[in-house]
Amino acid sequence: MINNITPFAIDSLGFMALATGSVLVAWSPWQDKFITWLVFASIAFLATWLDFESAVFFVAFLIPPYFAVWWSRSNKGLSSHWALTGIIVWQVAVFVTVKGYAGLESLRFGDQPIVTIGLSYILFRQLHLVIEAASHEALPLTLPRYIVYTLSFWTILAGPIQRYPDFCKGMETIGRPKVDVVLAALHRGINGAFKAFLIAPIFFQPENIILLLEPGITGTDWAVVLYTFPIYLYLNFSGYTDLVISVAELCGMRTMPENFNHPYLARNVQDFWGRWHLSFSHWMRDYVFMPLNVAVHRNLPVRIQGLGLGLTVLVTFILVGVWHGTTVEFLVFGILHGAGVIVVSILGTVLKQMFGRKVKKRIVSHPIWIVVAWFITFHFTCLTFLLINNELEATWQVIVALVK
User: Among 158-162, 189-193, 203-207, which is the least confidently predicted range?
Assistant: First the structure.
């Protein structure tokens, strides 16, 4: 970490300076140097976060996938396939070690967000590149492009997780957008700043929710604990996304993926993950759920494919949980959401078998069903979000007391 310089968070003057510089370069006659600028800006951003040891690790973590993909382009065949597979296993193993999962806590690089969170986003981009190496052979993959794609200062802390073809397509349109695009991007960026920095901090979650079991606690206290943190989480995260997409669009990039689609209006858990952190959800669907699902249908007898599908869902959401954090609370969070998706699937199957497809469609479209489904889903989400900042035992005691 650079001495006497505060790490550049998204609400810092440093981040604003880098974002402004990016827009100015994109609008200038030197827009063809935009990638070079982003390399400089991203390294400058990281330098405010990392000490020497962490910087060396980031370099070591960054290089192997690039050279593996580069080598595979000129060495097609079985050896290339095994090399890429080996890189995937290696990167995931290093990630698990450094993140400090159970039994490996001593190897963790502190609690810096740039390490504990940023590394997760870097890994997903790397795995995407390696897995799709054969499909992306026609796309340019220079070292500067790779650095910008994986370490870009505007997406390293909280995404979105952009796919490489979209990144390359976005780089082709860097320049000064039309006036209507500029105005829309500025409007979105201002709204995002208001959400993330002015409105979100109003809401909070007490760190010790076990205090809700103390005498004299009112229904208002319960409501504050249950509802405010989910509101804060959405406003902060979606506001950040709005700012990132706004800066990208001001630079001429129109391919940054959306991350949210009114998630708290979801009618079931599966619908929620089709609205929340979309770039992450789509990554997990494409690279975890779908391959496992294909393997189930190809290798299991028809009579037990339903069980296999359920296990696939559960494995996917366990990975969703442990990707977000290293504690047992995040593991339980993933299991609960996976179980929620399975319950929704079973309920849908039962309704279809009992009433037929058309009647089932009318039932789930009825306003009463919609309201009840939304109410249950929203409160399930709020309750499971308690696990993010609280210990499992305390959360369980509070939920039991709430239900009574």
Answer: 203-207
- Please say whether the beta carbons of 196 and 235 come within 8 A: yes
Nearest to 255 by CA among 190, 177, 370, 339: 177
Q: How far apart are CA 401 and CA 378, in angstroms?
A: 19
| Residues above pLDDT 70, as percent of the chain | 93
How far, in Å, CA of 322 to CA of 338, rounded? 13
Q: What is the pLDDT of residues 281-310, one digit of tens each?
A: 999 999 999 999 999 999 989 889 989 999
Asked if residue 201 has a cis previous peptide bond (ω within 30° of 0), the answer is: no
Specify whether the CB–CB gap between 245 and 158 falls below 8 A: no
C-alpha torsion sign, points 161, 204, 393, 398? negative
> Helix 367-389 crosses helix 392-403 at what angle (to 10 degrees)?
140
Rg from Cα positions in the chain: 23
Query: What pLDDT does residue 111 have?
Result: 56
